[in-house]
């Protein structure tokens, strides 16, 4: 029986999916968490140890002391533990992507510098530190996008169209970054806005060779000022030649970074000038969106990650089924009171499931501050158009009740 060390973040959407997939595959999991084991949620897998994922220098020796048996691999459920997992693999002398390679893909500024070095299309960009004058960014011209370097889920990403907006956005993103307790004082990325349609690619690397699992269209326009993702639809309706260009760019960037194993999730913009990679994450698609692959490949993203780590067979290429997922957006900041209309939404033809992940009484906020969604709607149909229509109809049936916060 393979034995894997799994980094389970307290706020990880897919924790239960990994645990359930491990049971199906007869894989033993050892859990390492970023919360006290006495406060562990009821996942049925109490963590062996609790360590700070954001502080590998402290966490690595703690894990090494706590492990009493050898493990065959170290995996992180999401971005939060990716760098720590890479460093643990080195300490335990296990195969996998080197820490430097993971760091390149999880840092938006480093990734842009790499694209520039290897000649892939990328927008003009600069780093802006806490004390830097905004003149270097102004020289890029507008519109611009201000980005926190290591946050995900569109947190700390703001489009700006003039100098006043730029100054306000820099201050706002610095505050968001500081609250997240990551990269305080590390500087921000400012780059030219890339127009065009946005798409995503999920794949798995085996000895450096990319096997594409799905190419997703994002049919809602993402023009800012904030960039809340909602719909992912597969198969993509892009021309075959454009999809081939996207795949080649992702393969090139992964090879250049030194990432050669495991799931990757790439985001890109497509316009008349070609394919522009936005980022590549060394993980599967985020949140519960990995469940959409069950409709096209017969297994979730979590199961594919575990299969690769344990050396088990990977899924065959996708069939003709179309599928989609909607990350239910947060309409306004405040306290979630409830979501009505779920029965009607579930009755929409081609809707295959709805999972509400936010709880009544929870504080919620849309991007660029918020880092979570209210839940996920899944569809399966004969065509991507039908899968998309089902998601939109189900979402239209919902009424989200949020109580605004009183101004201080």
Q: What is the fold's blueprint, element by element?
A:
Blueprint: E1 3-8, H1 15-25, E2 28-33, E3 49-50, H2 56-66, E4 73-76, H3 82-91, H4 99-106, H5 108-118, E5 125-128, H6 135-138, E6 144-147, E7 157-160, H7 163-179, E8 188-192, E9 197-206, E10 209-218, E11 231-234, H8 240-257, E12 262-271, E13 274-281, H9 293-297, H10 301-310, E14 322-328, E15 334-340, H11 342-346, E16 351-356, E17 363-364, E18 375-381, H12 384-396, E19 399-403
Parallel strand pairs: 1-2, 1-4, 2-3
Antiparallel strand pairs: 5-8, 6-7, 6-8, 9-10, 9-12, 11-14, 12-13, 14-18, 15-17, 15-19, 16-18
Helix pairs in contact: 1-10, 2-3, 3-4, 4-5
List keywords for this structure.
408 residues; alpha+beta
């Amino acid at each position: 029986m393979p034995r894997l060390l799994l980094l389970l973040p307290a706020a990880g959407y897919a924790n239960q999916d990994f645990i359930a997939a491990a049971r199906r595959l007869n894989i033993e999991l050892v859990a390492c968490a970023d919360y006290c084991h006495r406060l562990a949620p009821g996942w049925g897998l109490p963590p062996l140890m609790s360590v700070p994922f954001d502080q590998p220098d402290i966490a690595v020796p703690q894990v090494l002391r706590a492990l009493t048996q050898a493990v065959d691999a170290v995996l992180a459920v999401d971005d939060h533990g990716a760098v720590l997992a890479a460093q643990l693999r080195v300490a335990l002398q296990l195969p996998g992507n080197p820490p430097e390679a993971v760091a390149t893909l999880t840092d938006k500024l480093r990734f842009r510098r790499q694209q520039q070095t290897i000649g892939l299309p990328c927008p003009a960009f600069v780093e802006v530190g806490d004390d830097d004058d905004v003149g270097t960014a102004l020289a890029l011209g507008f519109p611009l996008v201000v980005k926190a370097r290591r946050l995900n889920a569109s947190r700390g990403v703001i489009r700006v169209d003039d100098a006043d907006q730029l100054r306000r956005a820099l201050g706002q993103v610095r505050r968001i970054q500081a609250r997240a307790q990551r990269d305080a004082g590390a500087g921000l990325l400012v780059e030219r806005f890339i127009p065009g349609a946005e798409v995503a690619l999920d794949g798995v690397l085996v000895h450096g060779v990319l096997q594409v699992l799905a190419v997703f269209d994002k049919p809602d326009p993402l023009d800012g000022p904030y960039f809340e993702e909602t719909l992912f639809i597969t198969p993509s309706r892009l021309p075959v030649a454009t999809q081939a260009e996207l795949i080649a760019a992702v393969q090139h960037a992964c090879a250049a970074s030194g990432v050669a194993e495991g799931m990757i999730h790439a985001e890109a913009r497509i316009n008349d000038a070609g394919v522009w990679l936005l980022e590549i994450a060394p993980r599967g698609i985020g949140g519960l969106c990995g469940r959409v692959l069950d409709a096209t490949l017969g297994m979730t993203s979590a199961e594919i990650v575990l299969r690769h780590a344990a050396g088990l067979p990977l899924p065959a290429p996708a069939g003709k089924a179309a599928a989609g997922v909607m990350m239910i957006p947060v309409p306004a900041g405040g306290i979630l009171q409830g979501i009505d209309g779920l029965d009607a939404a579930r009755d929409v033809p081609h809707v295959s499931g709805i999972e509400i992940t936010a709880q009544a009484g929870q504080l919620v906020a849309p991007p660029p501050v918020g880092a979570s969604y209210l839940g996920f709607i899944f569809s399966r149909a004969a065509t991507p158009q039908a899968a998309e229509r089902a998601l939109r109809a189900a979402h239209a049936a919902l009424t989200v009740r949020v109580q605004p916060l009183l101004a201080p």
